[in-house]
Amino acid sequence: MDPQAREAAVLEARKKLAEKFGDSTRIGGKGSMRRKHKTAHKTTANGTTKILSALKRFGVQPLPQIEEVNMFTDDQTIIHIKNPAVHANLRDNVFLVSGHPETKTIRDLMPG
To answer: How does DSSP assign 58-80, residue by residue?
Structure first.
């Protein structure tokens, strides 16, 4: 095989390998080692745990046995949360209300 044909074959083989592997398998720059496999990163803590750990800094404590929370908005609607999780720091006036909110009107919440 002459040198030009050999060089063309090598270049074509390199092109096929580049299409097959792409740049996603290389850790660093040119000449660096390829990754053995892609790793799936796992989250160590879910969002709730992170929020509760941040709230510990505020010194909030859970308030049990609250059945519902109603928040009145400026556009005459009410954000209604049934069986919420309520945490509070009464000294610093910090409250956390979490749950499934529903937007309602005043007529929906009035009996009769």
So the answer is: TT-EEE----EEEEE-TTSEEEE
Place of tokens 């069986």: 83
Residues 6 or more apart whose CB falls under 8 angstroms from that of 27 comprise 33, 34, 35
Half-sphere exposure of 37 (CA within 13 A, CB side): 3
Q: What span, in angstroms and rounded, lies between the C-alpha atoms of 32 and 80?
A: 58
Measured in whole angstroms, the distance separating CA 33 from the mean position of its chain's CA atoms is: 32
Residue 57 phi, psi dihedral angles, 5° rounding: -65, -30
* Total number of residues shown for the chain: 112
- Round to whole Å and give the CA distance between 28 and 92: 50
Single pTM value for the model: 0.52
What single-letter amino acid sits at 9? A
pLDDT digits (tens, 9 = 90+) for 23-78: 666 666 677 776 677 777 776 667 677 777 888 888 889 999 999 999 999 998 99
Please state the separation of Cα 96 from the chain's center in Å: 20
